[in-house]
Amino acid sequence: MADTSDFRNGLIIKFKNDLYTMTEFQHVKPGKGGAFVRTMLKNLRTGKVLDNTFRSGESVEVVRVERRKYQYLFKESAGIVLMDNDTFEQLTVSEDLFGDRAKLIKEGDEIELLVDDVDQIISADIPIFVYLEVKETEPGFKGDTANNVMKPATMETGAIIQVPLFVNEGEKIKIDTRIGAYVERVKN
After folding, report:
1. Which CATH topology does 2-62 take?
2. Do the domains 129-186 and 65-125 match in fold?
3. What CA–CA distance (Å, rounded) separates 151 from 14?
């Protein structure tokens, strides 16, 4: 058990029967009344953020976690197959762990799993930016650049991303995986 004096950014605690990471905290000592700590907590499973206030000295349960790097190998019916970069052991995880971002990863991408002390997977992080080739889209043409007009494009992994009109088939683009959006074209 830890108390409010042990709070720091990135600390993972068990709160309301779920796991949260502390994104912000602030010790407050008002002129009247007891001191307290104002925090912003992010749920590791759902990603929802909540703000909570702890009384100074209140104890919380700290969860020990480990970040492990894996390499994405392929997708099968049982889930996504990853390989441990150190031991070369293969691991199959549920596609639900990645949510909508599962279609943005391809062979060889590095995945980081957050694992607790009993080897239970808490969350999966994919790279913030990925570089994918456009496999199918309408032909590009010049003009109408003032309105930021977008068109759908199917990527090599099957994901459908909105891209500007000037992007053509066969080009590589940079995609922000946090929001699933086009960033820029990539030169070969």
Report:
1. SH3 type barrels. (2.30.30)
2. yes
3. 43
